[in-house]
Amino acid sequence: MRWKPLCMLQGFACIAVFMFLLVFWLSSEAKSSQNLYKQLRQRRNFELLTVNERLFVEKNQNFVVPKQQVIPANSFVNEKVQTKVAVVPVQNVEEVPKASNQREALLILTSMRTGSSFTGQFFNQHPDVFYIFEPLFPFHDSCKIAVEKKIEVLEGLINCNFTALKFSVDESLYNAQQLLKVEQSASNLDHLKRRIKNLQTCKQSTICFRQSTKALCGKDFCPHAPSCSKCKTVPTMTQIERKCQEAKLVVIKSVRTCHVDWLSKTYSRTGIPVKILHLVRDPRATGLSRLTMHKGLGNATHEMLGNCQIDAKNMETRQAVAIKNDHWLTKRYMLARYEDILSNVAQFLDDVTEFLTRDSSVLKSASFNLTHPEVTKWFKTNSRTSGASIYSTSRNISKQASKWRKTIQPSLAFSIQKACEHMMSLFGYKPLKRPADLLDWSISLLSPLSKTV
């Protein structure tokens, strides 16, 4: 009998040990999760985490990220300033609108200084269009860096989902701030400081270049501001996405998309048929414009060689599939030369309208036409004189197409046309035979484009 109490005592001891081990294990798991969260917060602010890291933290901490508040620009300069993240119950978070199939998408595939900002305004002024200006700005200019992330951002925007874009701004800002701490070159320091300032503006405005999207500058967002640049109201991500989804057409203007093949899977992933407007310009004019923008610094010929190779590859891709009726690019590609747009804007607007409404019940039912009164009003106001800024969207179209011929150095013109010989042949740009041809206005440097192009 004396062994019975002993056994009972041993049983209680076993239970106690088991309970102790269980509590210890649970506390270790909690501590491990907390340590991981702490490490992630130490490595970068919570809002700077990658998508996978955010999902992990949300899953293990049982909360979601609250809607971001506008943060003063100097918050990003001081590393000690930490953004506080409140715990928000899932049911209280404003839901992101679901995707709609009542919308089309157009990507303006182009490069810097090709007249793309001016051309993009024809779309931006239309009330049925949600225009997105340079959403890949947070990324490196190189076509070989962060390709998958760029595609992810484009796919999100086509579907009016700005989450990936927001994360790219956060990450690029963080990376630039870290580089600023170790960079020694004065020129690179100046560049980084400008980049950080621009990315801070992107973050404060929720998206980059918010003032370039007319749909976000209406009376519902800026009731008292004389212009979008003066507007102090910052739209939330959900407001931007809803405004995007109200549009019949989403237009993305990007000089960092590079290759048409990037969009080969967007239709299967988004369900929205993307069309492409491939905008090109005489590389000699583009090279001179870039050299002016860079204040005479850099190698314009080398830079244009890379761009001409990309344009040529995109054209060759299109030509290779022109006879394949089942290819994703068939009937979704349109070429436009900047010089042709300036010479006959009305024809360009008609051609683009036909291109966009073809096989589109959404735009046909909305009677979409790019010659909308708002578009023509903007054009009449902004086509008579050129703006003072190199980034201005105002152009004197009667002089713009041939302006470069008066100011380019003959040596630069010949150097660029030698580097871009193949591209110029594909797109109908004639080479100069002698320096005097630059100022001989009886000589046209454009060949008519084939109807099959």
UniProtKB/TrEMBL annotation:
One of its GO terms (molecular function) is N-acetylglucosamine 6-O-sulfotransferase activity. Its EC number is 2.8.2.-. Keywords: Signal, Transferase. It holds the Pfam family Sulfotransfer_1. Gene3D superfamilies: P-loop containing nucleotide triphosphate hydrolases. It is an enzyme of class 2 (transferase). GO terms for biological process: N-acetylglucosamine metabolic process; sulfur compound metabolic process. Residues 1-30 form the signal peptide. Residues 105-427 form the Sulfotransferase domain. PANTHER family: CARBOHYDRATE SULFOTRANSFERASE, CARBOHYDRATE SULFOTRANSFERASE 1-LIKE. Belongs to the sulfotransferase 1 family. This is Sulfotransferase. It comes from Phallusia mammillata.
